[in-house]
Specification:
CATH superfamily: Electron Transport, Fmn-binding Protein, Chain A
Number of strands: 7
Strand order of the largest sheet: 2-1-5-6-7-4-3
CATH topology: Pnp Oxidase, Chain A
Order of helices and strands: EEEEHEEHE
Number of helices: 2
Structural class: alpha+beta
Helix content: 25-40%
Number of domains: 1
CATH architecture: Roll
């Protein structure tokens, strides 16, 4: 399922706190096999929120998180580290962001962030109708 979100540089990822309050985070996104992938640090609060509640919403946004499109419902899960799927998702980011991703990966490796990175998979909920 290809969507406009496949082509945008940033999406806002909305996850939910224990009390149900939304938390929006602008992130890079890469499409693969009809799903969307984002990466973050394993210890980030969004990983903890998604671990408790996999329901998320995503929307097109700018680098600062300003919405540029409607929210779309989805479900999010963490991908196993070192899996073939994680490797393919990383390749999708390299294809989409090119040199920008390579430079980011280089510096992330230097400061030890690559070992703390986790890949998240977002399956969008099809629109009714």
């Amino acid at each position: 399922m290809s969507t406009e979100l496949d082509r945008v540089p940033y999406i806002n990822l909305r996850s939910y706190k224990r009390d149900g309050g939304p938390v929006d985070t602008p992130v890079w996104v890469a499409p693969l096999d009809g799903k969307l992938y984002v990466f973050t640090l394993r210890e980030s609060f969004k990983v903890k929120r998604i671990g408790r509640n996999p329901k998320v919403q995503v929307a097109k946004c700018d680098v600062r998180g300003k919405l540029l499109g409607p929210w779309v419902d989805g479900e999010c899960r963490e991908i196993s580290a070192g899996s073939d799927l994680e490797k393919r998702a990383n390749a999708a980011f390299l294809d989409k962001y090119g040199l920008q991703m390579r430079v980011g990966n280089f510096f992330s490796t230097l400061v030890g962030r690559m070992k703390r990175r986790v890949m998240l998979e977002i399956a969008l909920t099809p629109a009714p109708g």
